[in-house]
Design brief:
One of its GO terms (molecular function) is DNA binding. This is XRE family transcriptional regulator. The chain is α+β, with helices and mostly antiparallel strands. The protein has helices at about 10-20, 25-30, 35-40, 50-60, 65-70, 90-105, 125-130, 140-145, 160-175, 180-190, 235, 250-255, and strands at about 110, 115-120, 210-215, 215-225, 240-245. It has two domains: about 1-70, lambda repressor-like DNA-binding domains (434 Repressor (Amino-terminal Domain), Orthogonal Bundle), CATH 1.10.260; about 85-255, Beta-Lactamase. Helix 1 (about 10-20) packs across helix 3 (about 35-40), helix 2 (about 25-30) packs across helix 3 (about 35-40) and helix 9 runs antiparallel to helix 10. The radius of gyration is 21 Å and the shape is elongated. Helices cover about 45% and strands about 10% of the residues. It has twelve helices and five strands.
């Protein structure tokens, strides 16, 4: 890809602008002079390996992109990148599976950086049963499954508000990460029709997720867990989504499921 050949200064300037920081703002945060930062962005100076990592840290650049910065500056990657199926990732994968299993009978699932399903506990399949088979072919995209008219969308309560929340969250992720695949997914999801009468509402501070399963309507509060201290690319991009019942009827329904 052409981005891999871009000078380090181009990456630095692009991410600084994405974070809406001036050169002075970033220079103060990184404890360097504005003049030096300007020279780095224009290519009149080349950063050391430590400077690349320091600036990436201040701009909260994802680990995958930090490796790209290092390569653009002529250095070896700092963070290993291995598929989750790699034998060396077994301890991390086991930890994820343990978190998911411990959350049962409440639903919990793990997704990668593009919202593709990595794993889920036994409480998830009964909730997504009935979705169109094409949406359940691996890799299952959780965002697509939730918002597609042939997926969970017709069974989600207050769908307009949930849709607005999901799209806003995805838009933030696409902007923060600069990932074109997320931007493309966002365009796709925005093109899905919303059910009649489901006007979009402002995001709530804590939006309940209500889903009809058979004759019952289950109500959840969702939380997100990430591996904040991860130093491996794939693990740093993994997100665990957990669902907590908001009423006794939902708790009882989950126990039966």
């Amino acid at each position: 890809m052409s981005t891999r050949l871009a000078p380090i200064g181009d990456h630095l300037r692009s991410w600084r602008q994405r974070r809406r920081m001036s050169q002075m703002d970033l220079a103060l945060e990184a404890e360097i002079s504005t003049r030096h930062l300007s020279c780095l962005e224009t290519g009149r100076a080349m950063p050391s390996r430590g400077m690349v990592l320091r600036l990436a840290e201040q701009l909260e650049v994802p680990l995958r992109e930090r490796n790209l910065w290092l390569a653009s500056a002529g250095f070896a990657p700092a963070y290993p990148e291995r598929p989750l199926e790699d034998p060396s990732m077994r301890p991390a994968r086991a930890a994820v599976e343990a978190v998911l299993a411990a959350h049962a009978p409440n639903p919990a699932l793990a997704v990668d950086r593009h919202w593709n399903l990595v794993s889920a506990n036994a409480s998830v399949p009964p909730l997504i049963a009935g979705a169109d088979a094409s949406l359940l072919v691996p890799p299952v995209n959780v965002m697509r499954l939730a918002l597609h008219p042939a997926g969970l969308a017709p069974r989600i309560g207050d769908f307009g508000a949930v849709r607005a929340h999901f799209l806003a969250r995805l838009a933030r992720q696409a902007t923060v990460s600069g990932d074109p695949a997320l931007a493309e997914l966002l365009r796709e999801l925005r093109g899905y029709p919303a059910p009649a009468g489901s006007a979009e509402e402002p995001e709530a501070l804590a939006l309940p997720f209500r889903l009809r399963v058979g004759e019952a309507e289950l109500s959840f509060l969702t939380t997100t867990m990430v591996f904040g201290t991860a130093h491996e690319v794939s693990l740093s991009e993994l997100t665990v989504e957990t669902f907590f019942p908001m009423d006794e009827a939902t708790r009882e329904a989950l126990r039966r499921l």
